[in-house]
Each structure stands twice: as structure tokens, then as C-alpha cells.
Design a protein that fits this description.
seven-stranded mixed beta sheet; four-stranded parallel beta sheet; elongated; binds adenosine-5'-diphosphate; binds 6-O-phosphono-beta-D-fructofuranose; identical protein binding; PFKA_ATP_prok; ATP-binding; ATP binding
């Protein structure tokens, strides 16, 4: 394969730029031309495409966001939209496409592969860490570190005032950001969509914490469960403690990528380009138990995602 394209799609994630850089430079090193598609599938349908060389990705490894921009494109959810995208790729003589995005973006990519026999490879880019086939997605590590920084700061002021705080974090339907940041931040409780929550147990624990002399109580709540103010109202009826709420929001999607995300980006880019170089498509790249892997896209999307029970259990154990 001599000519490939790359796009970023869905919610942006720190490390997407490092992955774009990796794709362009790995491909250029193997005498492959790279085209960058702007604004995900929207730009693909509209033909917003430009040639990228090694210099075009200088000085981006440390930047959050995505220089190719990203978008959500309802038209690509239709066979007609996918066909338009395919025709644009054909018109540019593009033989392979690398999609950096989450599960929605991968579903679009799968349809492009199966309906039109376009060789596509996915690199997992989402802060949510909600793809079952890979242990980690680009942006997750950075997002968790951003949440940890917030927990540390919020803990200082809660402790000074003997208060509790519910910190709502992103993740869509996935509780990984909450579990990892809750464990690493020493949260008293972690509430995630994958594990049914018992409001009485949370309230009992808060009451016991007050008796034990704990000066603050941090509850990390995944957005997929409910709004932080809903949970606050449920607790406030039962426990005599001042509760504040913080919705961390988009701060979790920005910022300079961590070492882990940059290294993951480079490794995934290298594998993705090599697959296309060998004319292999229909794959998604990731990491399992430290090793870079690639899986069939349909099988990867069918895998059932599970919350990390071990981390959740340890977090509960350590928060006594
Ligand atoms: P993410 O990739 O981060 O999960 P989204 O779920 O918003 O983000 O999906 C990004 C884009 O991928 C959508 O706007 C749409 O263009 C495309 N997409 C999502 N789901 C599908 C689907 N089932 N079929 C085709 N394209 C899809
Ligand atoms: O998928 C990434 C993510 O940040 C989710 O955690 C969150 O639910 C969603 O995107 C927010 O999407 P939007 O950018 O459309 O507000």
C-alpha cells in the first residue's frame, strides 16, 4: 500500500496528536504517502483532505486535542454517508484509512471495511477506556491524572472544613475513570454504572467515617450513574454532613498527554501503519498485558467490557 489517510473522530483525547505524528512519520519512513482528513467522518464526506509530511507534525507530541480536529457526524451512521466517504477516498487514490477514536468511530470504520472493502485500522482514542479488547485507550491515563490532581486539591479544602464532596467524572457508560482515580486518590466511595450502588451502604460508611474522626469524605461518581446533585440530595436526607459537589467536565479531555499516553500512541501508530503496509485492514490496535496487539474489528467490538473488580475491591478495602 502506497497512500493512506488518517482521521480523528468522536470526543478528542490527549495523545491523539502524538498518534497522528506517529502515523505520519512511520508511514513516511516506509515510503507511504499520508493524507490528513479534517473533522472526522464529516470531513471525509466533504473531502476536507490535505497531504501531510513529517514537518507538518512537528511540535505536536505534547499538545492535547487534535490538530486534525474532530466531530460527530450523524450522516456517517447511514449506508449513504458511508458510501460517500468511500467515494472520496477512492477519488484521492487512498488505499487504507487509520481511524483514531472510540467505539462509535470504530463502528463507522467497520461498516466502511465490510460494505466497501476499504482497508481500515483503528487506534483507540478516548478518555473513557470503554473498549473491551484493549487494556488502555489513548487519553485515559492523562484524564485520570487530571482527575487525581483535582481530587488532591478538593481534599485539602474539604479537610479544612470537615466536609464531604461528590466529584463527578466523565466516562459515558464506563466507570474506569472513576475506579482508577478513586483508588489512586484515596476516595472513601466510588460509584460506577457497572456495579449497582447501595445508597444506605454509602450513608452508613459516611456516618462511620465521621465517628472515626475522618475530616473529609470524597465520593467519586461516574457520570453514567447519575448527576452529582441527585446523589447529593439522596445522601443529604440521611447523613448530617455538609456536602459539596464538583462536576469536573471538559477539563478531563484537555491538557498535555502523559508519558503513558505518548508511548501508547507511538506503539499503536507503528502497528497500524505496518498492518496497512502489508495490505491488512479490518483490524483494531491496542495493548494487552503490556504487549501491542491487533484484533479483528468485529470480534473486538463484540467483546464484553468488564469493570476492574480487583481495583474496585482494593479501593474499598483501603478507604476504611
Ligand atoms: P466515539 O468514537 O468517541 O465513541 P461517537 O460515539 O460520538 O464517539 O462516534 C463518533 C462518530 O462515529 C459518530 O458521529 C458517527 O459519525 C460515527 N458512528 C458512531 N456510531 C456509528 C455506527 N453505529 N455506524 C456508523 N457510524 C457510527
Ligand atoms: O467520550 C468522551 C466523552 O468526554 C465522555 O466521557 C462524555 O460523556 C462525552 O464525551 C461528552 O461529549 P460532548 O463532547 O458531546 O459533550
Amino acid at each position: 500500500m502506497r497512500r493512506i489517510a488518517v482521521l480523528t473522530s468522536g470526543g478528542d483525547a490527549p495523545g491523539m496528536n502524538a498518534a497522528i505524528r506517529g502515523v505520519v512519520r512511520c508511514a513516511n519512513n516506509q515510503d507511504m504517502e499520508v493524507y490528513g482528513i479534517e473533522r472526522g467522518y464529516d470531513g471525509l464526506i466533504k473531502g476536507d483532505i490535505r497531504r501531510m509530511d513529517s514537518r507538518s507534525v512537528s511540535d505536536i507530541i505534547q499538545r492535547g486535542g487534535t490538530i486534525l480536529k474532530t466531530a460527530r457526524c450523524p450522516e456517517f451512521n447511514t449506508p449513504e454517508g458511508i458510501r460517500k466517504g468511500y467515494e472520496v477516498l477512492r477519488a484521492y487514490g487512498i488505499e487504507g484509512l487509520i481511524v483514531i477514536g472510540g467505539d462509535g468511530s470504530f463502528r463507522g470504520m467497520r461498516d466502511l471495511c465490510t460494505n466497501h472493502k476499504m482497508a481500515c485500522v483503528g487506534i483507540p482514542g478516548t478518555i473513557d477506556n470503554d473498549l473491551a479488547y484493549t487494556d488502555f485507550t489513548l487519553g485515559f491515563d492523562t484524564a485520570v491524572n487530571t482527575v487525581l490532581d483535582a481530587i488532591n486539591k478538593i481534599r485539602d479544602t474539604m479537610t479544612s472544613h470537615d466536609r464531604a464532596c461528590i466529584i463527578e467524572v466523565m466516562g459515558r457508560h464506563c466507570g474506569d475513570i472513576a475506579v482508577y482515580s478513586g483508588l489512586a486518590g484515596g476516595a472513601e466511595s466510588i460509584v460506577v454504572p457497572e456495579i449497582p450502588f447501595d445508597i444506605d451502604a454509602i450513608c452508613d460508611k459516611m456516618r462511620r467515617n465521621i465517628i472515626k474522626g475522618k475530616a473529609s469524605d470524597i465520593i467519586v461518581l461516574a457520570e453514567g450513574v447519575c448527576d452529582c446533585n441527585t446523589l447529593k440530595n439522596m445522601i443529604q436526607e440521611k447523613v448530617d454532613i455538609t456536602i459539596r459537589t464538583v462536576k469536573l467536565g471538559y477539563i478531563q479531555r484537555g491538557g498535555t498527554p502523559s508519558m503513558a499516553d505518548r508511548v501508547l500512541a507511538a506503539r499503536c501508530a507503528d502497528r497500524a501503519v505496518n498492518l496497512l503496509k502489508n495490505d491488512i485492514g479490518g483490524r483494531v490496535v491496542g495493548v494487552r498485558e503490556g504487549a501491542v496487539i491487533d484484533d479483528d474489528i468485529t470480534e473486538a467490538l463484540d467483546m464484553e467490557r468488564k469493570v476492574n473488580d480487583e481495583l474496585y475491591r482494593i479501593a474499598s478495602l483501603l478507604s476504611l
